[in-house]
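Before our next group meeting I need something from you. Please put the record directly below this note.
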Amino acid sequence: MRRIDNGRSVGGKKVQKLLEFFNQHLPMVGVTEKTLISPTSDDVQKIYAAMLVYTGVTEERTLCFEDVGDEDEAAANGCVLFEELSVFFKKYNDSYRFNISDLVSPDSARFLQFLQDLIKFYNVRIQRQNDLAEVFKERDAIQKRQAEAPLILDSLREDVQHTMDSLDNLRRKKVELAYQIENLKKAETAQKIEINSLDEAIPKTELEIQEQQQKLEATKERIRLMNEEIAELKGKLIQSPDRQKSEMRQQEKDLDRLNTEVQMLETSITNFENLLNQLEQVDHHYFNFMESLNSIKEEYKKITKAQHIASSLQKELEEAIMKNNQKQDELKRLTHTYEAEKNSEALKHDRLSNEVQQYDTWALQLNEKKENLCAKIAEHQINLNTLRDRNADIRKHLQDYNVRETLQDYEQERKLLEDRLTQLLDKKVDHMDKIKKLQTIIVKMESQIEDALKIRHKNFEQHRDEVKNRETMKDWVYTEQQYTE
C-alpha cells in the first residue's frame, strides 16, 4: 500500500514525543518517524488498534492485529476498528470527527492529533486510577479507624474505671491523712506545752543548782573549819583531861550536829544529782521531740503533696466526666441520626426496588432493540455480499465483452453500486453507533444498579456496626452522683 504525504509540515517536537511514547510503552508496534510523518492505511490501523488496547478503550479480543489474506475478513476488522475509533473520538473530542478516510487515506496531521488525544485520555485515566487508589486507601484507613474505635472505647472505659478506683483510694488516704494530721497537731500542741513548761523550769533548776553548789562550797568550808577546830580540841584535850572531856562532850554535840548537817548536805547533793539526771532526761525528751517534730513536718509535706495530687486527679476526673457527658450527648445524637437514617433508608430501599424493576424493563427493551439491529446488520451484510457477487459478474462480463457501450453501462452500474455500498456502510455505521449507545446505556444502568446496591450494602453494614456499638455502650453510663461520691 502506498504512503500518503499531504505535504504539510509536521512539528518535530510532537513527532519526537510520540516516538518516545511508543518506544517506551509499545516497542512491539515498531513505530518510526517515517511512519508518523507519512503513514499508510495498514500502519494507521495497526497503531490505532494497539493504542485502543493499551489505553483500555477496548479489549484485545475485539480487535485483530494480524494481517489476514481474506479481503472480507480484513474489511470486517477495519469496520470494527472504525466503529471503535468513531465512538471513542465522538465521546472524547467531537471537534475532530473521525471519518473512514482517516483509516483508508490518513492525513498525518489528523493522525498525530488523534494519537495525542489517545495519549491524553490514557494519562487522564491513569491519574484517575491513582486518585481512586488514594480514595480507596483513605477508605481503608477510615474503616480501620472504625474497627479500632470499639477497642479504644474499651480502653477508655478501663482507664475511667481505673481512675475511679484510684480516686476512691486517694479519698480514703485523704481521710486517713486528715485523721493523722489532727492527731499530729494535737501531739504537737501537747509537746509545745511541755517544751514551754520545760523552758520555764530550766532557769529555775539552774538557779537551784547554783544555790546548792554555793551551799555545798559553804558546807565544805565549814567542814574544813570544823576539822581544824577538832584538831585544836584534840590538842587541848591532851593538855587538860577534864577540860578536854567537857570540850569533848561539847565537840561530840557539835560533831553530831555537824554530822546531821553533813547528812542533810549529802541529801541535798543526792537531790541535786537527781535533778541533774532529770535535766538530762528532759534534754533527751527534747531531742526526741525535735526528731518527732521533724518527722511530723516531713509527713505534713507528704500530705500536702498528696493533697495537690488529689486536687489534680479531681480535675482530671472532672474532665473525664465532662468528656463522658459529651460522649453520651454524641451517642444520643447518633441514635437519633440512626433512627432518621433508618427511616430514610427504608424509603430509599423501596425507591431503589422500583428503579431496579424499571431498569430491568429497560434492559429487556434494549435487548430487543439490539436483536433487531443485529438482524438489520445481518440483512445489510447479505445485501453487501450480493453486490460483491454482482460486481464480480460484471467484471466477468467486461472480460468477455470488450465493447465501449458495455464499459459505459458498467461504469454507470459501478457508480450506482459504489453509492449503494457507501449508503449501506453509512447505515451500518449508524446502526453500530446505535448499538454502542444502547450498550453504553445498558452498562451505565448496570453500573448504577451495582452502585446503588453497594451503597445500600455499605449503609446496612454501617448501621449494623452502629447498633453493635450502641449495644456495647448502653451499659457504660456514669452519673454525676457516682463521680462526686
Remarks:
- The first helix runs from residue 12 to 25.
- The CA atoms of residues 5 and 38 lie 5 Å apart.
- The chain is about 90% helix and 0% strand.
- The chain has a mean pLDDT of 71.
